[in-house]
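Protein modeling request. Please complete all fields; requests missing the sequence field cannot be processed.
Requester role: graduate student
Desired output: 3D structure, C-alpha cell encoding
Chains: 1
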Amino acid sequence: MWKSPARIARIGTLALAAPLFALAVPAYAEVPQVVASIQPLHSLAAMVMEGVGEPALLVRGTASEHGYALKPSDMRAIETAKLAVIIDTGYETFLAKPLKARGDKIVTLAMADLPGLTVFEPREGGVWEAHDHHHKHDHDAHGHDHHDELDGHVWLDPHNAQLMLSALEAELSELDPANAATYQRNAEAARAKLAVLDGELKTKLAPLAGKSYVVFHDAYQYFEARYGLTPAGSITVDPDRSPSAKRMAALKDKLVAAKAACVFREPQFPAAIVDTLAKSANARVGLLDPQGAALPPGPALYPALLGNLADSLTKCLGTP
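Delivered output (320 residues):
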C-alpha cells in the first residue's frame, strides 16, 4: 500500500516517541496466575478477578473431583500458578502431592480452613434420621488434623461463599497490590449479589420444608441446612462405589414410608442406579448438579449453580 511522505514522517516520529512513552508509564507487577480445583471455586475466583485476569480451572464439566487424574495441561497450570484455590487436599486428594512439591512457590488457599466457615461432619449410612442431620464440626478446635471429619461441599452455603470471596480478595491483594482496589470492588459486589440470591432462595424453597427425597451422594447438606430441606438419605456414601443390595432395599423402604416424591441423580455419575430405585419406590427422578457441570465456567457459574439446584428441587418436589 502506498504511503505519502507526510504519513511516513508521522510514523517515524511515533516510532521514536514510543520508547520514551513506555518509560513514562508506571511498571505494574504481573497479574498472578491462579488455579482453582473445581468449577464453583473457579467461579468465585473469577468474580474477584474480573477485569484483571482469569483463573485456570482443573476439574471441568462432568468430570468428578472424586478420583480425578491430573492431565499434563493441569500440571503446567499448577507449575506456573502463584495461588491455588482448593477446598482442602483431603478433599481434592489429587492435588496433595503437586502442591507439596511446589512448596513456598505457591500460596494454597484451602477454603475449609477459613475462620467462621460453617462446616459439617459427613453423614453416615445411606438412610438418615433426624438426629443424623447437620452435625456441626468444631472447625477452630480441630484444624488440619481432622479434615477427614469434614464434609467438603462447603461452597453450597452462600454464606460460606461470601467468606471465600473475602479470603480471595485478601490473598489476591497481597500478591498483586497494584490491583487491590479492583479486587475489593469486585468482592464487595459479589458478596452483595449472593446476599440477594440467598434471600430469593429462602423464599423459593420454603414451600419444600418437610418434603422427603433421596440424593445420589451426600453432597448437599450445606444447601439443605441453609434452606430447611429434609432429605431421607443418599444412595451411596462413596460415589465411586456401587451401593449394596441391602442399602438399596433400606432406601426403598424409607422412600415408601416417607412418601418421598423424588430420587435425584447427578450428571457426573451413571443414572441406572437412580432409575432402578425410583422405579421400585414409584418416585420421580430429578437432577441435582453440585458442580455446575453443564454451565460455562466463569463468574456467572456460581449464582446459576445455586439457582439451578433450587429450580430442580422445586420442579420435582413441588409437583403434586
